[in-house]
């Protein structure tokens, strides 16, 4: 029987990782992302914003991230980003800064600050020119090979880039990324041997529980619908933005004044595409005569 729940829908993601009962699953995923050296593994974790299934979903753009603190005092911001927000790099830096500065209260010393680590699972591609699906960012001076501070660390995991088959999975992180990509269509009774890991099997059972409650299933479906609608709208807007860029480039080549962006924005998509095609044809004719 197929699972039928997609853990990349942020509601399902936080149901799976943002509850006290499922902390062992969260700890395992975080350690697999960090691959920490001995003595730096996450052993215990406190959820600073535990999942509340009755919280309002009226704000459709709200992202149900997970804020947590481990036994050493490190802070974590963990999210499944299901929609492609513009300027996402600025967004994750902003939310990292907010969480980091919240550690100190008036009169407290900087020595009390602990590292803040951001882990972002993205259901879209952020760095198309980079083949790696897992990128890690730190405050690093490359010429001197010098680390300014270990208090800032970002992990970005782009799920569409992960294309391994079960036979190719070689690490715990591979197994979790495969789960994120394929869980919805997994048959829990016919899993490949490599996926039959205790915590992953428990994750599957947790998602099954989500699907068996009408109210929870409705909330999940509402978030899933929004994900599809938003991504469709963003793709359409991106295509329209590309058309505007083509129009302005062609007008420059033809020696014409650029049509104001506000005027182009007011055109229907069909009219925008038609204008871009007409200008491109004129440019091709011009180039043939040069």
Annotation keywords:
alpha/beta, about 290 residues
Walk across the major sheet and give the strand order. Answer: 1-2-3-4-6-5
Please work out how many helical segments DSSP would assign. 8
Estimate percent helicity.
40-55%
Number of strands: 6
Spatial gap, N to C terminus: 65 Å
Low-confidence stretches: none
SSE order, as H and E?
A: HHEEEHEEEHHHHH
Main sheet makeup: 6 strands, mixed
Pairing-aware structural class of the strands and helices?
A: alpha/beta
User: Which band does the percent of strand residues land in?
Assistant: 5-15%
Radius of gyration using CA atoms only: 23 Å
Shape: globular
Mean pLDDT: 87
Structure overview:
- With 290 residues, this protein is of the alpha/beta class.
- The protein is 43% helix and 15% strand.
- It contains eight helices and six strands.
- It has a six-stranded mixed sheet with strand order 1-2-3-4-6-5, with helices on both faces.
- Helix 3 (88-101) links the parallel strand 3 and strand 4.
- Helix 6 runs parallel beside helix 8.
- The protein is globular, with a radius of gyration of 23 Å.
